[in-house]
Amino acid sequence: MIHLSLIGIGTGNPEHVTLAAVRALNEADLILLPRKGEANSDLVDLRRLLCRNLLEASSRTRVVEFDLPRREAGTDYLAAVDDWHGAIAAVWGELMATHLPQGGRVGLLIWGDPSLYDSSLRIAGRLGARTGGEVAVDVVPGITSLQVLTAAHRIPLNALAEPVQITTGRRLRERGWPSDAASVAVMLDSGGAFQALPPEGLHIWWGAYLGMDKQHLIDGPLAEVAATILERRAALRERHGWIMDIYLLRKISGGECNEEG
User: Fold this and answer.
1) Which residues does the UniProt record annotate as the domain Tetrapyrrole methylase (predicted)?
2) What's the CA gap between 26 and 13, in Å, rounded?
3) Rounded-to-integer distance, Cα 11 and Cα 228, Å
4) Residue 71 gets which letter from DSSP?
5) Could you tell me the pTM of the whole model?
6) In the chain, which ranges are E strands?
7) In terms of DSSP H, where are the helices of 16-57?
8) Rounded to whole angstroms, how far apart are CA atoms 9 and 96?
9) 194 or 42: which carries more pLDDT confidence?
10) Looking at domain 145-251, what is its CATH homologous superfamily?
């Protein structure tokens, strides 16, 4: 039997890793580290650093790196993602069968938290068929990018007694502002989905590389700072070869940008 732990590691600050995550790392027989190409080498470098710093000297945990399959571009987004998840599950299953033929405990370090716009739980659900045996899955929660964003800007996620919707850049472009939401958190934006919205009356809190040394923050009325965010985002992507950013949008009345005014 394989026991798989999906271990949330936060967004780039080693101090955000919980004690429960440290325990799960040290209890694993095998830790799998995905490589996403040279452009995203910072992400695997951080995982390597966590393993070096958090695995105890007496630990027998093996660390194995693998190349993450690429998602094929196509007009049918959901079908392409489904195929991609299947390819990843196949790689996970092969690695587990190779390195733990008699079963054991496997750890996967998940950026942020496995529950928030991350597909590791869905991929793990395919593993039983891939490994030919039973796979038990547990989740070690991690600090999410939304928590780091709101903490960095020193704001609450929601306006007083108002709902928040969490969505993606693609859906924001396609469907506009969600109905009945006073605040909208946007993730997985390839860049500038907020341009699809009328900017009047909206405030934005944007952050890139949250929790990392190269963290950047911008906030202000969307009409005033949208161009600045786009320019900064492009420059940072050019400089580092990759970017990971999210933002919170909120309808503002009376010139206020948070509950405290």
Assistant:
1) 4-225
2) 19
3) 24
4) P
5) 0.87
6) 2-8, 30-35, 62-67, 104-110, 135-140, 164-168, 183-187, 202-208, 216-221, 245-251
7) 19-27, 41-54
8) 21
9) 194
10) Tetrapyrrole methylase, C-terminal domain (3.30.950.10)
Work out the pLDDT band at 180, boundaries 50, 70, 90.
confident
Closest CA to 149 of 10, 242, 261: 10
Q: Which residues contact 226 (CB under 8 A, 6 or more apart)?
A: 192, 194, 195, 199, 204
For residues 38 and 34, what is the distance between their CA atoms, to the nearest angstrom? Answer: 12
Domain edges within the chain: 2-140, 145-251
- Cβ(103)–Cβ(1) under 8 Å? yes
3-state class (DSSP) for residue 30 = strand
Mean pLDDT of 195-202: 96
pLDDT at site 261: 35
CA atoms of 151 and 182, how far apart (whole Å)? 19
Q: What is the pLDDT of residue 111?
A: 92
Cβ neighbours around 105 below 10 Å, total: 19
| pLDDT average, residue stretch 140-167 | 95
| CATH class for the region spanning 2-140 | alpha beta
